[in-house]
Write a structure and sequence with these properties.
Bound molecules: phenylalanine, cobalt (II) ion
Largest sheet: 4 strands, mixed
Order of helices and strands: HHHEHEHHHEEHHEHEHH
Structural class: alpha/beta
Number of helices: 12
Helix content: 40-55%
Number of strands: 6
Mean pLDDT: 92
Low-confidence stretches: 1-13
Strand order of the largest sheet: 4-3-6-5
Radius of gyration: 18 Å
Distance between the termini: 28 Å
Amino acid sequence: MSAAQKPDAKAVNRGVAPVTYGTGERPPRGDYASARSDFTCDQSWEHYTAVDHDLYRRLYERQVAQLPGLACDEFIEAVRHLGDPRRIPRFDELSDALHKATRWQVVAVPGLIPEEAFFALLAQRRFPVTEWLRSPAEFDYVVEPDVFHDLFGHVPLLFNPMFADYMQAYGAGGLRAGRLQACEYLARLYWYTVEFGLIDTPAGLRAYGAGILSSAGELRYSVTSSRPQRLGFDLKRIMRTRYKIDSYQASYFVIDSFRQLIATTAPDFAPYYGQVADATELAAEARLATDRVF
Ligand code: PHE
Ligand code: CO
């Protein structure tokens, strides 16, 4: 799950207004009419068809097969928590296991939700997971996050105590960033860590970002292709950097450890936001003299 760029969602008497990426001509896919005011809804597990479960299994199997040598060990170790790959997991069962491990839960949402609602859920250690699954025609690529991306990409690392704390801190920081008009900067941090982050390990670079871990093609591309640049994690630099939502990334940022990620993001960001606002914005493919290049 990620928040929409320019959410336009007003709470209405029944359900909530749908959210799409950008100004978007594409109609929203989810059933926002039955969502609650915090944008959560019921998973309605019984409504998944045999085709859905089979497609989930095929997505899962293709992705698990490519993890060795490309995904970080913490992710590989945790992916088993998703349970039987032949069925889309029941969120309530997954939540029970997750709560025992790190006090997180997964909650169903109809799709993209406004930033504010997204941050609020994370701050409460509730991870919003899109309830619908892509169609078989979207086996290789789906534009918006679906239940496969959200579960397979995001949920395993929520079983990791350090990463679990990072996600909650991010949510709390997001609520504050909203009051400081700095949501865009935090969205970039999310994008280049939670969605597309790489980590340096003794065995080489590995992926920990959900957007790459759930992608058929970008997982290998991000770790091994010579086309994109891989740059050392640099918080304010990331806050200045635009990103691509409709193609593989031009730049990936590499952390040394989850400990580094947490330590670097622990300080109060309020003074950083002013500095970032005064600095020039950077294109996704920009390269600075100060970049540490991998
Ligand atoms: N330290 C950040 C702040 O003061 C909060 C935060 C933590 C944001 C981790 C993102 C990730 O706002
Ligand atoms: Co995501």
